[in-house]
Amino acid sequence: MQLKNKLSNWQITAWVIGLCLSTPLAFLIFESLQGESEVFSHLWNTVLWDYISNTVWLIVGVLLLSALIALPLGWLTAYCHFPGKRIFEWALMLPLAMPTYIIAYVYTDLLDYAGPVQIFLRDWFGWTSPDDYWFFDIRTLPGAIVMIALVLYPYLYLIFKTALREQSFKLVQASQLMGLSPFQSFLKVSLPLSRGAIVAALALISMETMADFATVHYFAVSTLTTAVYDTWLGYYSLTAAAKISGIMLLFLFVALSLEKMSRKSKVVHERQSSVNDTSLYKLSGKSGWLATLFCTLVLILAFFIPVGVLLSYAIDYFDQAWNDAFFNYAWQSLKISLYVSVIAIFLSILVVFYQRIGEQKSKGFPGKVASMGYALPGTVLAIAVLLPLTLFDDYLNRWLDGTGLEPGLLFSGTIFALVFAYVVRFYAIAQGAVEASFVRISPSIDMASASLGKNNLQTLGRVHIPLLKRGILTAGLLVFIECMKELPAALLLRPFNFETLATHVFQFVSDEQLELASISALFIVLVGLIPLYLVNRSMEQQS
Amino acid sequence: MKRAIATLLTAVTCMPAFAADEVNIYSFRQPFLIQPILDDFTKQTGIKTNVVFAKKGLIERVKREGKHSRADLVLTSNFSAMIQLEDLGLTQKIASKAVESNIPASFRDPDGQWVALTKRVRNVYSSKVRLGKLEALSYEELADPKYKGKICTRSGKHPYNLGLVASMIAHHGETETKEWLVGVKKNLARKPQGNDRAQVKAVKEGLCDIALGNSYYFGKMMTDEKQKSWADSVYINFPNQKNRGSHLNVSGVVLTKYAKNKENALKLIEFMTDNKAQNMYASTNMEYPVKPGVELSKMVASWGAFKEDSLPLAEISKYRPLALKLIDEVKFDL
């Protein structure tokens, strides 16, 4: 009886969180049901299928490419010894700090006809016009896939690496003893064991890809997201736009549910205190250098080239690009990102913990609905957030009517709106990372704690959270960096006279003046590096 | 109790304190264009200006904020946004003698719900080397097979292009315009992409010979050290000089229905329609001022006088939804 009561408290908490975070979505869905299907059917008859196929190809491409980059990297840095490994371990996370829209602009500048690469080729071969030679066009669907994957692979890399570290590598050792080659062991032991973590990461990547607007728009690749924008801003139909968003979310929901069902009986909880040095394979000679080369190549493409270009712009255009308000913008970005990371982690721990101890069939539901916001494109999310908040404001003002107080837009007109929107959008990341760590704590630990007379809260506080430290840090880091980079929601929801680094960058890149935005863009990357460094250091200390 | 709760909430959400003497602006136009004008306004009147700038979604924000909205003005970069605000009932009459005497009637809403501040032409740029100046060019000709594989433009769904397509529908009807769009699409050198400046750059690079673009970009590019060479590679042409004249778009301003600082907002609108601000628009942003008698920038004047299409904007904007449908039907952007 006692237990039942306790559970229902956790249940209520989780459901409240789930419902709060999904209000914007609920309002959007409600909006999509408001009749009016003329625009939608017009789209259906004209361009919608092209959009759907582009979206599917984009997501499939990004997932495949991210997996090709991140899985080998994760495995190499978790289990192998090769030259430079210590540096690569954290350096491979660096591309996360790079906003996708920036990397897209940089590469376009570099690779287009007037860019240094083609100029060099023309000089070298004596070509004079575009008719003389063929050069790939980066502003295409494959180009967009490469750009997005270069920025998003660190999700998979990080989550996979953490999973490998926390797995029992006794199994890997055993596979070694049984004569499996490193590659076979990777395929037959490491991959299946980390399946949950991999899928969680891929789900995050596909949501983020689905929500990307800036890059696909810049590359003129029409996807469902661009369709959402077209219908809302072109046809003035939020209803049809919400319908399209609904289709996207439905896909996602079905995909995630199917995956969960297929995984039901395959949970492996065996965990040992993470040992930092799990190097099983000493890669020496040629294979060692190959590993080094692979890591270096990824880093150069995803991080050093874009940063190098930004740096050279920043130096050349310093006088025009420098702005005394940078520190203020950086502070605003930092502040918001910190609030959001802390809130998102706190909420996700509560929700995931209930998933762990709950006995109801529906225990996974709150987490799932709360995570849906991640797949919404930024501007659409911003509107979805405004729907309930403005209603709420209106209600509050009417409630205070007659008291002489008129707070106005207390929720929708302040940074509350921005923080709320970001929590809704990035909660999924926090939950993904926290969940991945929770799964690896064996239920027997909970039982042991219970048998010592600890209640759930004490178990969570004294047993789980210390064990989860790494997962929590990871989650916080990911959310923080995403907030630093986020642009569309910030543009639309910010209060008066409020600039973040990202909104400042946007003013210039939308006019093909990346050089003037270079310093701001570097600030975004730099501020993103600080938590990267801190998290890395604390991980080192833990072990 | 209610008071306590309200105070607490105000503290938690960092609600900014609003001063008495200020005006709040939602702007579709970039800060670096309008900030100098706003600063000048503050210097003259002592009225503080607060801005939220975004390129997308501000109309929805005003709509959702309803009567508590803090926005007193919305600055738009094209006429359809103003007319949409009006249609949604989010505007009120700009009752000002000064504005009426500054701005010709054809650039004001008959009912005073919006005022245009600047004019821009939808020009056609042609490669100096490969095509030369095209004095007699018309928009209709862009569908002529002689330009096959030579035209560059930004997305057909961008307001500037939608405005042009809507004006084509107004002059030629739906069927003919659809045929024209199919013809233009066949002539495209590449899928519509980038912004107006990027099209000129593409002409310089030899990817295409003709590009659509707004007039002021040409002037802006001339004053940008990196982009000057792009602009130097093209001539600016004013289409349809032999018949109806070139298609115009405008940037403008509306006074929101629930403006809390109406007095100040009206002062700002008056300021923006007056000589000083109109001059700034002309000289720093290379746009055509709406106030008669305001001098053009030297560069803009050097492009020569031209004939404007006199069809009222309100008339053209009726065809905007249809224009969008046609763009989708011919898969212009895909």
Automatic annotation (TrEMBL), chain A:
Stored SUPFAM superfamilies: MetI-like
Pfam families listed in its UniProt record: BPD_transp_1
Topology versus the membrane: Multi-pass membrane protein
Cellular compartment(s): Cell membrane
Keywords: Cell membrane, Membrane, Transmembrane, Transmembrane helix, Transport
GO cellular component, one term: plasma membrane
GO terms (BP aspect): transmembrane transport
Domain ABC transmembrane type-1: 52-257, 330-535
Top-level lineage group: Bacteria
Transmembrane stretches, start-end: 12-31, 51-75, 87-107, 141-160, 197-220, 232-256, 289-316, 336-357, 369-389, 409-430, 472-496, 516-535
Family, per entry: Belongs to the binding-protein-dependent transport system permease family.
Protein name: Iron ABC transporter permease
UniProtKB/TrEMBL annotation, chain B:
Pfam families according to UniProt: SBP_bac_6
Signal peptide (residue range): 1-19
InterPro entries: Ferric-bd
Transmembrane keyword on record: no
GO molecular function: metal ion binding
Domain of life of the native organism: Bacteria
Key words, A-Z: Iron, Metal-binding, Signal
Cellular-component GO terms for this entry: outer membrane-bounded periplasmic space
Residues annotated to bind Fe cation: Y216, Y217
CDD domains noted in UniProt: PBP2_FutA1_ilke
PANTHER family: IRON-UTILIZATION PERIPLASMIC PROTEIN, THIAMINE-BINDING PERIPLASMIC PROTEIN-RELATED
Family: Belongs to the bacterial solute-binding protein 1 family.
Name the UniProt record assigns to this protein: Iron ABC transporter substrate-binding protein
Organism field: Pseudoalteromonas luteoviolacea S4054
